[in-house]
């Protein structure tokens, strides 16, 4: 195994990654709350942890990647009171909550496919794991770190904090939290404002509800991740990931719940991706810059000068280190679009490079540089810089100014494709891929056969071919000695 170094948000330093049970790696990432179409903010964690998933597998680990779907218990403003986001959308659209979940999960999955994000090994839904969550709440109650209040169950942060540090991940101190917590409805049920709900008693109008020993209600937002990560990855697992915005309170709550219920710290390495800004501003619906992924791909948004291909978005996100902030602008996206085109042109032209009886480039050093970048906490900007070094050399080789042997070219083709396509997950442009010549070749064949039909005076057949092609959006224009064709866009 290579030495892979990750930045652990919990210890605030880079550490050599050593899984608990190699070659197995348990990876848990907080997935989307599915009550609206996926937006730009969903793309960065998905792509960051897709890269991690791909790279861990590439260097030989067997990864169980669990990414949940939050379909219950995530209340407005991430609070312990107010409406459930899914249920609110269901009322708005006049459909079942599970229809909301299905609709927006489908949209999310479609967008993830477009971004070439691999499917996780397990994608559990919170609503499908109510018994596991009830068990965990009961355990925490048994151990005396939660209390029942008016049918709801709250985690006792003050008691936990006596022997633990609530806030250790985000660097917060409980006393400061008390001063900064806003007054919210329903908090009179809590002993302290920073206590958080493990189970909420449902109000009469609340439509998503389950039986529990304490009330008919629903789980708090944080407990699902503790319950599902424990179920699928065990009491202790290797990596927990998510966006930085989830560090507090969500991940702090997960740490506290799992510690009490399981008796130990569950997560060995915490990894967080940084946020996206748009034209220098924090992204948010209230600012009118909450761009949906569908809008980004179609160009249908006032902030967008044109549509952007999903691969441009993926490449743009990978051009920054995942722990850096990333600012979206038309200018930056168009620069990425050009860079990606150059990179993909090299992928396409590589196999056809002229070969020589000697190699004048240092292939081993280049490969080592690429790996070193990835092994240093997934440093994709450095990796991409090395890929562009090779793009320059590829151009020189095509002009005969650098040389490569047949065997070295074979190695280079394989490695360049591995870094670009398999690890970074960039998809080859179908226009430049091996299938790109398929349509012209098929058209040549079909038009030859049509010409033959005409020669045999089988005009019914030749017209039929022309009409059927027309239905497929292909226009045939007859010439004296044959026919031209074009596709209607
Ligand atoms: Zn979570």
Describe this structure in words.
- It is built from 16 helices and 15 strands.
- The chain has 489 residues and is α/β, with parallel strands linked by helices.
- Bound molecules: zinc ion (ZN).
- Zinc ion binds at residues 30, 225, 250.
- Zinc ion binds next to loops.
How is the topology of this model organized?
Blueprint: E1 5-8, E2 13-16, E3 24-29, H1 40-58, E4 62-67, H2 85-93, H3 97-114, H4 130-142, E5 146-149, E6 152-155, H5 157-163, H6 174-180, E7 196-201, E8 217-219, H7 223-233, E9 237-243, H8 247-262, E10 267-273, E11 276-278, E12 281-282, H9 293-298, H10 310-318, E13 326-328, H11 330-349, H12 363-375, H13 380-398, H14 406-423, H15 438-455, H16 459-471, E14 474-479, E15 482-487
Parallel strand pairs: 3-4, 3-9, 9-10, 11-13
Antiparallel strand pairs: 1-2, 5-6, 6-7, 7-8, 11-12, 14-15
Helix pairs in contact: 1-10, 2-3, 4-7, 4-8, 7-8, 10-11, 11-13, 12-13, 15-16
The structure holds zinc ion.
Structure, briefly:
The protein has 489 residues and is an alpha/beta fold.
| CATH classification class of the largest domain | Alpha Beta
Count of folded domains: 3
- Enumerate how many helices there are, as a single number: 16
**Named CATH architecture of the largest domain:** 3-Layer(aba) Sandwich
Radius of gyration (CA) equals 27 Å
What's the count of strands? 15
Can you give the helix content as a percent range?
40-55%
- Uncertain regions: pLDDT < 50 for 5+ in a row? none
Strand content: 5-15%
The small molecules bound here are: zinc ion
Structural class: alpha/beta
CATH topology of the largest domain: Rossmann fold
């Amino acid at each position: 195994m290579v030495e892979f170094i990750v930045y652990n948000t919990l210890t605030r330093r880079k550490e050599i990654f050593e899984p608990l049970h190699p070659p197995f790696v348990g990876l848990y990432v907080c997935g989307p709350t599915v009550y609206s179409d996926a937006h730009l903010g969903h793309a960065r964690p998905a792509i960051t942890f897709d890269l991690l998933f791909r790279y861990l597998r590439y260097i030989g680990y067997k990864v169980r990647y669990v990414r949940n779907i939050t379909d219950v218990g995530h209340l407005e403003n991430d609070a312990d009171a107010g409406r459930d986001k899914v249920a609110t959308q269901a009322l708005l659209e006049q459909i079942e909550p599970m229809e909301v979940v299905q609709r927006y999960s489908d949209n999310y999955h479609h967008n993830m496919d477009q971004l070439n994000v691999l499917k996780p090994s397990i994608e559990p839904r919170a609503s499908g794991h109510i018994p596991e969550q009830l068990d965990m709440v009961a355990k925490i109650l048994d151990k005396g770190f939660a209390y029942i209040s008016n049918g709801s169950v709250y985690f006792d942060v003050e008691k936990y904090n006596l022997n633990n540090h609530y806030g250790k991940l985000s660097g917060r101190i409980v006393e400061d939290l008390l001063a900064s917590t806003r007054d919210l409805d329903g908090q009179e049920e809590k002993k302290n404002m920073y206590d958080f709900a493990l189970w909420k008693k449902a109000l009469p109008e609340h439509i998503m509800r389950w039986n529990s020993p304490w009330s008919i209600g629903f789980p708090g937002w944080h407990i699902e991740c503790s319950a599902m990560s424990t179920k699928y990855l065990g009491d202790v697992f290797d990596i927990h990931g998510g966006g930085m915005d989830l560090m507090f309170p969500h991940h702090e709550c997960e740490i506290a719940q799992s510690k009490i219920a399981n008796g130990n710290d569950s997560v060995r390495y915490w990894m967080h991706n940084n946020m996206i800004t748009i034209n220098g501003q924090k992204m948010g619906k209230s600012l009118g810059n909450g761009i949906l992924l569908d809008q980004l791909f179609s160009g249908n948004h006032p902030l967008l000068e044109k549509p952007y291909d999903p691969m441009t978005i993926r490449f743009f996100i990978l051009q920054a280190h995942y722990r850096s902030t990333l600012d979206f602008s038309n200018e930056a996206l168009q620069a990425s679009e050009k860079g990606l085109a150059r990179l993909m042109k090299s992928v396409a032209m590589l196999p056809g490079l002229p070969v020589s009886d000697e190699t004048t480039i240092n292939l081993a050093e280049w490969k080592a540089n690429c790996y070193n970048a990835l092994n240093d906490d997934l440093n994709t900007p450095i990796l991409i810089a090395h890929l562009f070094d090779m793009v320059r050399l590829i151009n020189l080789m095509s002009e005969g100014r650098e040389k490569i042997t047949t065997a070295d070219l074979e190695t280079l083709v394989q490695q360049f494709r591995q870094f670009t396509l398999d690890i970074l997950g960039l998809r080859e442009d179908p226009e430049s891929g091996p299938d790109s010549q398929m349509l012209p070749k098929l058209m040549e064949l079909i038009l030859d056969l049509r010409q033959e039909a005409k020669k045999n005076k089988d005009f019914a057949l030749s017209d039929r071919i022309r009409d059927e092609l027309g239905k497929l959006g292909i226009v045939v224009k007859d010439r004296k000695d044959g026919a031209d064709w074009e596709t209607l866009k």
